[in-house]
Amino acid sequence: MKYILFILIAITAISCGQSNNTDTADMYEASELSAMMREMVTWSKEAKATLAAGDTITHIPQSFYDLATQTATRGEHDETAFLGMVPAYTNALKGVERRDSQQYFYDASIQACRTCHAVYCGGPLDVINQL
Ligand code: HEC
User: Fold this and answer.
1) What is the CA 114 to chain-centroid distance, rounded?
2) Which residues contact 61 (CB under 8 A, 6 or more apart)?
């Protein structure tokens, strides 16, 4: 059972575009998409805290709207499936920016993370589920 779990984790890590070669692990450089994903995690955490405090989210990084054109480790950005799931996220961001119901659109943005990651890589789902 433990063995199976290990394999699953290994596969997940690889399919997230992380280097699977320990020799080059030190040289692993985040792709544009990975780097943006990390910024998205940081921003989402801040946004969640802002809403929890009853405040308004005023800062929406405009770079996130360029999600579709970021270079990915495995060229995901060229895939129809990937491109098809980007609008769910960017439309949610627009909702937050419009300040309609920021809680509603924030939740929609996190749902968009989950939907795409259910397809591309489950690794970050632990992080996403805390957002
Ligand atoms: C449209 C698809 C899509 C959406 C939406 C999406 N992701 Fe990702 N995410 C990816 C792909 C593909 C990768 C792998 C990137 C690479 O390796 O180049 C990734 C990688 C990541 C990583 C790993 C980054 C690293 O350190 O290498 C994290 C963490 C992450 N995403 C979190 C999130 C969060 C949080 C959200 C929502 C705010 C989100 N993702 C929305 C497709 C998506």
Assistant:
1) 8
2) 39, 43
Question: Ligand 1 center to residue 92 CA distance, Å?
Answer: 16
Render each residue's pLDDT in the chain as its tens digit; 131 residues: 555 444 444 444 445 655 444 444 445 678 999 999 999 999 999 999 999 999 999 999 999 999 999 988 887 777 889 999 999 999 999 999 999 899 999 999 999 999 999 988 889 999 999 99
Cα–Cα distances (Å) from 131 to 24, 112, 127, in that order, read 31, 12, 7
Determine the Cα–Cα distance for residues 51 and 103; give it in Å rounded to an integer. Answer: 7
Contact (CB, 8 A) for 102 and 56: yes
Cα 81 to ligand 1 centroid, rounded to whole Å: 14
Mutate to test the pocket of ligand 1, among 38, 117, 120, 130 (most ligand atoms within 8 A of CB): 117
User: Is the shortest distance between the CB of 47 and ligand 1 below 6 Å?
Assistant: no
Evaluate: CB of 43 within 6 angstroms of ligand 1.
Answer: no
